Amino acid sequence: MSASTPSERLYRYNVLFTDSESAWLDQLAEEIHAATGAKISRSEIVRAAIAGLRELHTLVPTGGPSWFPPLTTAKTGGDLTMLAALAARCAAGAKR
After folding, report:
1. pLDDT, tens digit (0-9, with 9 covering 90-100), for 15-24
2. Domain span holding position 78
């Protein structure tokens, strides 16, 4: 799964982050660099997160477990955060 394809045009948007969100993006980029030598930008991380939500949105209504609520039930960004975290925890638990 790719965040974007090379043929897709990129557009510039202004996104507001809290101090802790900004620090986490920098930390993740640094950890990736330390572990792999690859330099990943904040934009790449955000696009990857969007791709993950897009995949979850695609899978849950059609092939996901019936007990997992679709993203369209979210009423706030906090709801989306909870659903994404739940999906990540379910995936991690399924691999154990």
Report:
1. 999 999 999 9
2. 19-94
